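Example 3.2
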Amino acid sequence: MNDHIRFDRDALELHLLDQRLLPGEEADFVCRTPDEVITALQTMVVRGAPAIGVTAAWGCALAVSRTGDGDGWRERLDAALEAIADARPTAVNLRWAVERMRACRRAAGDVDRPALLELFLREARTMQDEDVAACKRLGRFGADCLEDGDTVLTHCNAGALATAGYGTALGVIRAAVEQGKRIRVIADETRPFLQGARLTAWELHKDGIPVTVACDNACALLMQKGLVQRVVVGADRIAANGDAANKIGTFGVALLARHFGIPFYVAAPLSTIDPQTADGTAIPIEERPTGEVTHAGGRRVTPEGVPVYNFAFDVTPAALISGIITEAGVLRPPYGPAVRAALDEAATEAHP
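Structure, written as tokens:
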């Protein structure tokens, strides 16, 4: 599945499968301006760190197309790019993508707006293709961490929908199935936005991979009963020491996995590693609108006037992670040296 992020070059439109409507309806959210891209990012039309990065890259191209040719277009473009980079705080791929587009602009020199637009369109397409390729590579590495007959528990959605295609955590599962392994999946429902129940179950069911949805608070019982052999989750930002931010509730799953002796893996491309963030305490944690908790299906489920915590992410300490699955291989503890080596090798390959 890789058609949920599509760019129409003729119309200069970004078509995003609106994930808010799944699984009941498949419809596109069309972005023609950078402001519409920001809306899509903030309202969860598109989510998942790699998908956020790819969407941001296309948003940068739309920003070039909308700045106009008059005096000051470069300044207007700068402001639009920064607004995109600031759309959400936790997923490092967002600012990473904007910085990559800025680097492309610097390398091009003082080109005019049509030439810059063409460069940005090519770079965004390259980034989208690279993300799919990275997911497939990390999937093959991660498949070796799974045994035939395993049931894998996952949290949130780290599938094709969260990337440009194929997926990270679900990419590992897809690759294992392609190897002929019999894999079953338990998808935590992932409150309050239900990414597991709505999106992970939808993806896997479409692919014919056996999946069962479980309430988030059933995790301990499922592990106690021996129904879970592995946990594989995605990440929105991985610190230099291996601490990993992912959807709220992941930390609790990791603690339970450690208690029951179940391997706990994080699957993410190298672009999700932030070497400038020393550890998880420095990762900004987004707080989402309270309405996601106070209402379900448009109906209020909490009393008026009662405050709500709606932190979107938590941080799993590196000590609870069995391995970080990347397109460069499976990183193992101690993660500080492993992360540095993987990033250095990737930089050398990119600029030999």
